């Protein structure tokens, strides 16, 4: 049992160490200020777009559904993959 705990601690600390190195070499300076609500290859975040739509438009227009893009919202094409408890939890977390 102690060996498993030591292994888990080693994996956790080595992960944190490498994440700290990645942020120190500039990855963090590039990633943190990136606007994720603009659709770009490999840099957009559909969940950030969903939450921006929820915050920007009245509830009667989005009904807390998942709209992956602003065009989908305009065309009334919701995305039906994410369940609402998950989305509400992510919204509260962010």
Report on the architecture of this protein.
By secondary structure, the protein is an all-alpha fold. The chain folds into two domains: 33 residues; 60 residues, no CATH class. The protein is built from six helices and no strands.
Summarize the structure.
With 94 residues, the chain is an all-alpha fold. The chain contains six helices and no strands.
DSSP strand (E) fraction? under 5%
Q: What is the count of helical runs?
A: 6
Oligomer description: single chain
- Which secondary-structure class do the elements indicate? mainly alpha
> What letter string, H or E per element, gives the SSE order?
HHHHHH
Please outline the helices and strands.
Layout: H1 2-24, H2 27-31, H3 46-56, H4 59-62, H5 70-75, H6 84-93
């Amino acid at each position: 049992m102690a060996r498993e705990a030591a292994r888990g601690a080693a994996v956790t600390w080595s992960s944190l160490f490498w994440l700290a190195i990645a942020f120190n070499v500039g990855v963090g300076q590039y990633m943190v200020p990136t606007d994720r609500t603009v659709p770009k290859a490999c840099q957009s975040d559909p969940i950030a777009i969903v939450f921006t739509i929820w915050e920007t438009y009245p509830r009667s227009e989005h009904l807390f559904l998942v709209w992956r893009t602003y065009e989908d919202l305009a065309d009334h094409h919701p995305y039906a993959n994410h369940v609402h408890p998950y989305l509400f939890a992510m919204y509260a977390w962010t």
